[in-house]
Amino acid sequence: MTMKPMTVAFASDEARLDLVYGQGRRDAIAERASIYPHRLTTENLADHLPELQDVEAIFGGWGMPVLQAEHLDRLPRLRAVFYAAGSVQRIARPLLERGITLVSAWAANGVPVAEFTVAQIVLANKGYFQCIRRYAVSSEDPRTTPYGNFDQTVALLGAGMIGRKVIELLKAYRLHVIVYDPYLLDSDAVLLGVEKATLEEAFARAIVVSNHLPQLPATIGMLTGAHFASMRPNAVFINTGRGGTVREDEMTSVLAVRPDLVALLDVTDPEPPLFDSPLRTQPNVFLSPHLAGSHGDEILRMADYAIEEFDRWRRGEPLRYAVTAEMLETMA
User: What is the DSSP string of 10-71?
Assistant: First the structure.
């Protein structure tokens, strides 16, 4: 009789593991595999390594220990890691170098980011954010933004997993979507129903510019004051990507002299902003605390993706969300 593979779940603390694998998800894994009885953390991993010789798959999440060569040497049967969280940059390379399959639930985490972004785009096109600030301080009609959600141009920076989900959701609206992404093929743009644009065109043409660029050496500080200065009257910049892609000092300087513009910042650099940062006091900046990603029961979706991929892996089927070394060069 074939023994079920032993599976280990990693997390930085008990609370996070229970959030991700709660509401029956851990039980679902137990029906498929034998589970090592202890939850592993960066602090206790070394103590448990002698007992992990039979582990073949790991279910991880936020705070998962980085498995370095000395750890992997003592995990001889480990063949796959199913990471029920987003970015794998911190943990990926030692695993991939050993040929260990790595699956990320970044696509699941991208769903609420895309939903959050589309909600902000719809409001931004209506001039909502300019209006509520004006309405709070004046009795005059604040509805001065001559736009709406009909035939307006929206620009997306990046057409990765989240950018493509935003494109899909925006199909419910009559909007013209342009995309800046050097890696987007012309044929893919046609299939997505979008127009490719340069970074300069994206800022100059769109009433809303939404940032989904990963933070990589090539993208740090990519969005400059010149880009923001070129934006259309009453335009809105949305950032649910990474704060480091924006030269925030240059952006705030432009926003100070362009009160018609609005910045909706769910991410900053540093995060949260320093207490004396002008981002906290400029009236045309709206800050949110990295809220776009999975929160509440949305977190469970990531465990569901991990379990679905585990089932495919056991059956020898192609994986949907496996990470490769090449992908690390362009993904968040």
Answer: B-SSHHHHHHHTTTTHHHHHHTTSEE-SS-B-TTTHHHHGGG-TTEEEEEE-TTPPP--HHH
Concatenate the DSSP letters of all residues of 183-198 into one string: T--HHHHHHHT-EE--
Cis status of the peptide bond prior to 272, with omega within 30 of 0? yes
The residue written with tokens 């100059």 in the block is 204
- Rounded Cα distance, 13 and 65, in Å: 11
Give dist(CA 268, CA 285) in Å, integer.
Answer: 12
DSSP 121-157: HHHHHTTHHHHHHHHHH-SS--------SEEEEEEEE
Residue 243 burial by CB count (10 A; 0-12/13-18/19+): exposed, middle or buried? buried
From 198, 221, 219, 220, select the one nearest 209 (Cα to Cα).
198
Residue type, 10: F
Grouped pLDDT means (10 residues each) for the chain, 332 residues: 60 76 93 90 91 92 90 95 89 95 92 97 96 82 81 96 96 98 96 98 98 93 98 97 96 97 97 95 96 92 96 96 89 74
Query: Are the beta carbons of 195 and 202 closer than 8 angstroms?
Result: no
Supply angle C-alpha 176, 163, 85, rounded to 5: 160
Looking at residue 154, its amino acid is V
Q: Angle CA(261)–CA(160)–CA(309) in degrees, nearest 5?
A: 135
CA distance 158 to 241: 9
User: At 264, is the secondary structure helix, strand, or coil?
Assistant: strand
